[in-house]
Amino acid sequence: MKLDVIKLDGGSAGSADLDDEIYGLEPRADILHRVVRWQRNNAQQGTHKVKTRSETSYSTKKIYRQKGTGGARHGDRNAPIFRKGGIYKGPTPRSHGHELTKKFRKLGLKHALSSKAATGSLVILDDAMMSEAKTGMLAKQIKALGWKRALIIDGATVNENFAKAAANIDGLDVLPSMGANVYDILKRDTLVITKAGVEALEARLK
């Protein structure tokens, strides 16, 4: 697969050959769904907690005698049936994460890249470099290129000035190649990969 390479100012910078085994697959929603679910579950904190009957602050004194009242038998006000009593089988701190093989995670990333290529939302950039960290200058270039919600994937490292300039632009994310993931790729409308990023991703996914 061949795609045109552009510069930040919109000029042409030749073309790039993309591997069909990474960018030319038929995207499968079930694979993408499983990988995104794995990512989001691992990101969930799982710190949810409610108080059980033994942790609420009421007295443990028996509220009335066992027999002769005509009412149900109760030990104390901490019972779940009472207002402000303990919660029965409520959430407790736990991990929501689950396992997913490396092979399947790689496959998910390939399908995410292929989905952007298939819809024409993949852009190859010559490089993401700036001599000065000027947010205004970068914002004008991004607007001229028509990128509203974009993810830029660079090589092994991201240019410091470019990262600083992009940090304050709404809807623009910048990641090194090792940070590329299915959720962030699908979340943005446009996927921009630098030439260095293309090489790094191919080395990672082969």
Task: Characterise this structure.
The protein is an alpha/beta fold. The chain has two domains: 2-45 and 97-205, Ribosomal Protein L4, Chain: A, CATH 3.40.1370.10; 50-90, no CATH class. The protein is built from seven helices and six strands; from the N terminus they run ββαααβαβαβαβα. The chain has helices at residues 20-23, 29-43, 102-118, 135-145, 160-167, 182-187, 195-205; strands at 2-6, 12-17, 122-125, 150-153, 172-175, 190-194. It has a six-stranded mixed β-sheet with strand order 2-1-3-6-4-5. Helix 2 (29-43) packs across helix 3 and helix 4 (135-145) packs across helix 5. The chain is elongated, with a radius of gyration of 27 Å. The model has no long low-confidence stretch (mean pLDDT 94).
Q: What is the CATH class of the largest domain?
A: Alpha Beta
Biggest sheet, spatial arrangement of strands: 2-1-3-6-4-5
The tally of beta strands, per DSSP, is 6
The secondary structure category is alpha/beta
Average of per-residue pLDDT values: 94
CATH superfamily of the largest domain: Ribosomal protein L4/L1
Order of helices and strands: EEHHHEHEHEHEH
Q: How far apart, in Å, are the first and last alpha carbons?
A: 16 Å
For the record, the CATH architecture of the largest domain stands as 3-Layer(aba) Sandwich
Helix content, binned percent: 25-40%
| Number of H/I helices | 7
The rough form would be described as elongated
- C-alpha-based Rg, rounded: 27 Å
CATH topology of the largest domain: Ribosomal Protein L4, Chain: A
Subunit arrangement of the protein:
single chain
